[in-house]
Amino acid sequence: MLHANKLVACRCKGNLWFSGVVIYTFFFDCIADTGNYLHVHPFFLHSNATSHKWVFGAIAELIDNAVDEIQNGATFVFVDKILNPKDGSPALLIRDDGGGMDPEAMRQCMSFGFSNKSKIAIGQYGNGFKTGSMRLGADVIVFSRHQNNMKLTQSIGLLSYTYLMQTQQDRVVVPMVNYKFDTSTGYLERLNDGEHFRSNLSILLHWSPYLSEEELLKLFDDIGNHGTKIIIFNLWFNDDGNLELDFNSDPEDIHIVGDIKKIDTHSASKIVNEGHIANRFHYSLHAYLSILYLRIPESFRMILRGQVVKLHNIADDLKYTEFVLYRPQCGSSKEGVSVTTIGFVKEAPKGNIHGFNVYHKNRLILPFWKVVNYTNTRGRGVVGILQADYLEPTHNKQDFERTSLFQKLELRLKQMTWEYWDYHCHLIGYCKRSTGDPGAPLNKRKTHGSIDLHKMKRQAMQENVTVAGCDQNVLTTASPTDQTVDQRIINLMEVQKKLLKECLKYEKAEEELNLKVTQLRRKTQEAKHEYDTLMAEVKSLGLYLWEENGSVAVPLVF
């Protein structure tokens, strides 16, 4: 039964706080003397996490947070299985070397509705950590170290569904302990040490996998001067009583138990279908991560169980490739421009592979989205890739909101699939469709006699065109209407591709140099921090340093 009382809301620093009560199988409690303060019942943690029907979608949320840290100097995200030291059960570890979180940022991370990320970041709603971690397991402990203005802090927080339910809490309680590094003494000090700190530490030690404060602090050893480590334990089981995540089938991968799809077809197609990434990403985290992003800086690595995951560009798997411009419109206004890379998979005509990989802000939202149901092979083997930043992803980043723009894109991709098939099916052994057929192409595309590369580059930059699968903001187009293709156009396109690769090489070089500058600045700050620490130790020990002044050694007194 749903119950809803009168809802009162106010804005506070860009976040929405509720002072009323709303009950949708979970409870938002209010205490009068706390003012505008949100209390969430523990049931909400579970209800909130069920927005992720697919377990890899939950892992992707946590990977997104690490990728967003590239702007703060992150160079890797590390995903692996570890063992819970208390009971030996498997746990999931995710670690990055980003900027980390200070105590306030940690509080916001463990709370609901906070997000201070930029508009270019993948995450926007401040809910991904909670939904992702709680979808994977009942409990998560977070370790984060942050350095700012020569001040180093480290924080530990526990979000535990087990603790909340077994102690019958009526609201979500997140115990946290914080520390700071004292440069004058060279030691780590507790922040706000007192009864509140000791109470939180007691809860952490009782309900986390670690038995002492020393064990907790030991977990920071591999974080370095900044970064975050997430450990999700008490992982969920499936309906068959097995762990959802399979760590044993492949020591270099993580699988979803029982989700390997067997294709019921003749042997040749079966081998193609089962081995293609369009099937493997459903159960292999390595395969999914390889297509999760269109591009990432070369200096950043995704490391899964000790193996670097290399990006897999679907466009490289296509043959007879074309690039099709699409300008979506909503009413009288244009909502952006995208270019779809489309072609046959290299295995065609073998295999029943079809669909479009649709990205948003570099992040995969819809993998191999099937927009047509082919009954007579029309559309079979046609695969495309595009970036649609004008659409709005759902909060779990596994679909788009069903807006008119989305519906128009779906219709256009369906038309695009049929058009491409009708013009190119003879290249893979099928009879070319007659233009008089009822299902003939809806819009014949014109063949361009010549291509002005400078004009196209300029136009693409002005219109902010995104060519998915080509790794740059440029527009390319090729559309032969007859079996006899103008060789001059093909030659120009080859020249164009070479020039675009050169442009991309320079753009990547610039990006890497900027990243190196950022890293060097950070290292300079760290070196200065270490120097100040050593000088403070020297002062505290009453030592002297000697400086050569000509032939005389002069003591430097502190």
From TrEMBL:
Question: Is the keyword DNA repair assigned to this protein?
Answer: yes
Predominant localisation class:
nucleus
One GO process term, biological-process aspect: regulatory ncRNA-mediated gene silencing
- One GO CC annotation: nucleus
Q: Which UniProt keywords apply?
A: ATP-binding, Chromatin regulator, Coiled coil, DNA damage, DNA repair, Endonuclease, Hydrolase, Nuclease, Nucleotide-binding, Nucleus, RNA-binding, RNA-mediated gene silencing
**Ranges where the Morc S5 domain occurs:** 283-421
Q: Which cofactor does it need?
A: Mn(2+)
Per the UniProt record, the source organism is Glycine max (Soybean)
Q: What family, per the record?
A: Belongs to the MORC ATPase protein family.
The places in or outside the cell where this protein is found are:
Nucleus
| SUPFAM superfamilies on file | ATPase domain of HSP90 chaperone/DNA topoisomerase II/histidine kinase
GO MF annotations in UniProt: ATP binding; ATP hydrolysis activity; endonuclease activity; RNA binding
In this entry, which stretches build a coiled coil? 492-537
Protein name, as recorded: Morc S5 domain-containing protein
